Amino acid sequence: MKQTETAGPTGPASTAAPPQAPPWLPWWAGVTAALMLYALYQAWIAAPTEATMGIYQRIFYVHVPAALVGFGVFFINLMASVWYLARRSRAADAMAVASAEVGVALLAINLITGPIWAKPIWGIWWTWDARLTLTLVIWIMYVSYLVLRQFTPHSELQPRLAAAYAMFIFVAVPVDYMAIRWWRTQHPQPVLFGGPHAGLAPAMLYALCVGFAAYIALAATLLRLRYRQEQLRHKIELQRRARALAE
Amino acid sequence: MHMTPPAAPPPTPTAPASATAIAPAGHPSPLAIFWATWRRDLRIEWRERQALNAMLFYALLVIVIFSFAFEAQAALTVRVGGGLLWVAFLFAGLLALDRAFARETAGDCLTGLAISPASRAAALAGKFSAAFVLMLAIEGVILPLFAVLFNAPPGARWGGILLTAVLGTWALAATGTYFSALGAHARQRTLLLPLLLLPVAIPAVIAMVQATQVYLHGQGGAGFWLQLLAAYDAIFTALGVLLADVVLEVE
After folding, report:
1. Residue B199 touches partner A, C-beta closer than 8 Å
2. CB spacing of A9 vs B199 below 8 angstroms
3. 3-state DSSP assignment of residue A124
4. Class of domain A25-189+201-246
5. ipTM computed for the complex
């Protein structure tokens, strides 16, 4: 019963040597850091100040990329979880952990910057608007996913249960979307949702694109680092278990 | 089902063989497994009455504490009664759902269930329906108490509230039983269950509270909330059945 790693239908990934740090990783991290700085320069200094919202609008260059890249990373988590259930590949599970953590961090940036912008512009920190509510709910579900991972022992059990929960999250999101839509249309909206989306000046669009590039690079760097770290952790775990059996 | 080990690996003595490989010729039908699990769970609960007593008293306490926290007047009940009622049901239900698998881990019954040739989906469905019946029984006691203690408005439509309770309890029991099985091996199992269940139950909670509110108020239609609840029930019951093998698989 102990040798779960060899007895189970594991993929080739569990026996293969864990990946070396790719030689390009430090370079990539450097490029990411430079891009992040350039994105800040664009957001704070280069982009023109917006006419009605003034300086507060500048948070938009952080807020929007963090959200969209965060949702993209959650999509990677879904793909990795499906892949794990189909193939029982440890590499897929490592990617699932990495993507859930990076996604939660990115969406946290989005959820924190949102109210900072909303307070001066809307006059309130938060409103239970459909989009805000859904974002918060998705974030909470992935935090639950991480808690589940933390509470289950490191064995074949953990990736399996986590992947099952990821399937529930995936199915819950559209149902949530419907429920929240209906719930919100039942009540009058406290604030009109007037985003700064209608027509973007070219300089603003450029700053936004730089923001996207920076956040995609950041997500890729973090994913790669965490992915490798998870695989190393698993390898250490296997060796520790093998030693315990040998003694 | 694609969740089972692919293409039947050769059953070596060390590796646990897949359940289907060692199934005897005349193993019981899924329906028999379903009824057996259902009867067994309810019988155990009837004999020890642990979850039943705890749930009943807990739900009662929630209602009583709410009546201190808020002024229990008819006007308030019309406004937020649905929410109060479902918070009580939800937290009482968590006790039943936790007990459902706490009992299984104690004697390592979960492993027995998982390695038996019985259909895991049927066993899970049996446990679900036992929890469902248990939760409905508690709600049947709490609902009249709530009506009395919170001075429910005379125009309230109790038939609609009962229908909402059945659909809503189905929703909580279906996802809750699955997550209870999912968390059965975890440290801090009791703490984990609400953390897993509550976020996924949000659409169901919205629908049941809104529908109950409409029926307490006595006017307006709650048809689409009930439809949402029914859709939630169907989707998540199907998902639980599909993924039953993943959660009850042997290592």
Report:
1. yes
2. no
3. coil
4. mainly alpha
5. 0.82
